[in-house]
């Protein structure tokens, strides 16, 4: 198993800003280390190593191929633009590297299937970089949602992730460029909203996606703001909204017949530790409707490592088990990534069809 003495050795393919956060996570994880950083520019890779305080033994490469050819690299983290994911994730898998892929995983489910097929055929672990999935708060919330006496039957989910991009972001960031990240806000922010909805629904796919009117795009046709309603055959509903035009907001509400879960920082906690969420059970009005009783309970969760380091720790544990013990890859992560992509595809199709209902099909 991967540990301090035998860590999973990462190569970072690309020097995007998010790679700085993930490098820190790898450095904090007890079973991982970075041995290589590569960019299309050798100078940029060298500057990343120097600016972020990586050990001087870290190898800098001026091409992605060089890291994939390095036998000392066990796994790769890919923070590349979405349009490059298929090429380099497939190439990494074909070189026997375990793949930690930045979200959104692909431009469409067909592209993601190519990545997953390559990972499956090579027996390497795949995971998308949705960090909040690995926080112990997420596990504790799942326990409460699964309790029929405290939560009851799931009825509705509402998720929001927005931030207000400045003029430079809206003009120049790769997330607004059709040739780099053509999914725009839907891919960058909506991915998290859709994942939270599926998580709350225990990964049961909705039957239908209906995009909301009012979707905003830039002149290149990239989505800057959108929302949708998701409907299940048994009557469950979910809504989400994602935007580059609103104040930083990360709301998630999950409503059951007996309970309600609410948190306002579901993607990135307000502070690394401790973190909170609120949960209410059997809420009623006080006499004369002057208030609520009982009040929602506030749950506080502490952790020794931030959620991104816990993600690296789990990914490295799985990769280490494959390398050391011949274990098979954990299918949970490719399965939920694909379901997230399927819903995202359906919302995009609904937007393109003038906000008509679209069936979500696997």
TrEMBL record:
Domain of life: Eukaryota
Record-linked Pfam families: GFO_IDH_MocA, GFO_IDH_MocA_C3
Residue ranges annotated for the Gfo/Idh/MocA-like oxidoreductase N-terminal domain, each copy included: 8-127
SUPFAM superfamilies: Glyceraldehyde-3-phosphate dehydrogenase-like, C-terminal domain, NAD(P)-binding Rossmann-fold domains
GO MF, one annotated term: nucleotide binding
Classification via InterPro entries: Gfo/Idh/MocA-like_OxRdtase_N, GFO_IDH_MocA-like_dom, NAD(P)-bd_dom_sf
GFO/IDH/MocA-like oxidoreductase domain segment(s): 140-261
Similarity comment: family membership: Belongs to the Gfo/Idh/MocA family.
Protein name: Putative oxidoreductase
The species this protein was found in: Cocos nucifera (Coconut palm)
């Amino acid at each position: 198993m991967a540990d301090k003495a035998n860590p999973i050795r990462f190569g970072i393919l690309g020097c995007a800003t998010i790679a700085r956060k993930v490098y820190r996570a790898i450095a904090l994880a007890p079973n991982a280390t970075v041995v290589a950083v590569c960019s299309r520019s050798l100078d940029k890779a060298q500057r990343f190593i120097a600016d972020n305080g990586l050990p001087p033994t870290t190898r800098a490469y001026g091409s992605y191929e060089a890291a994939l050819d390095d036998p000392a690299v066990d796994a790769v983290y890919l923070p590349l633009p979405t349009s490059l994911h298929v090429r380099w994730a497939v190439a990494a898998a074909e070189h026997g590297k375990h793949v930690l892929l930045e979200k959104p995983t692909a431009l469409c489910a067909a592209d993601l299937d190519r990545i997953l097929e390559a990972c499956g055929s090579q027996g390497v672990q795949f995971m998308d970089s949705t960090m909040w999935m690995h926080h112990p708060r997420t596990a504790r919330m799942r326990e409460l949602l699964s309790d029929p006496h405290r939560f009851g039957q799931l009825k509705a989910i509402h998720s929001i992730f927005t931030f207000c991009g400045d003029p430079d972001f809206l003009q120049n960031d790769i997330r607004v460029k059709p040739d780099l990240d053509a999914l725009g806000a839907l891919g960058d922010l909506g991915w998290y909203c859709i994942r939270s909805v599926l998580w709350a629904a225990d990964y049961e796919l909705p039957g239908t996606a209906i995009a909301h009117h009012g979707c905003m795009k830039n002149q290149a046709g990239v989505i800057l703001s959108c929302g949708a309603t998701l409907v299940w055959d048994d009557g469950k509903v979910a809504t989400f909204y994602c935007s580059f035009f609103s104040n930083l907001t990360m709301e998630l509400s999950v409503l059951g017949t007996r309970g309600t879960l609410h948190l306002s920082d579901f993607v990135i906690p307000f502070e690394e530790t401790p973190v909170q969420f609120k949960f209410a059970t059997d809420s009623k009005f006080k006499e004369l409707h002057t208030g609520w009783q009982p009040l929602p309970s506030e749950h506080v969760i502490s952790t020794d490592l931030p959620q991104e380091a816990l993600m690296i720790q789990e990914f490295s544990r799985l990769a280490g088990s494959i390398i050391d013990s011949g274990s098979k890859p954990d299918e949970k992560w490719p399965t939920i990534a694909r379901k997230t992509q399927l819903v995202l595809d359906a919302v995009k199709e609904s937007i393109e069809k003038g906000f008509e209902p679209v069936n979500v099909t696997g």
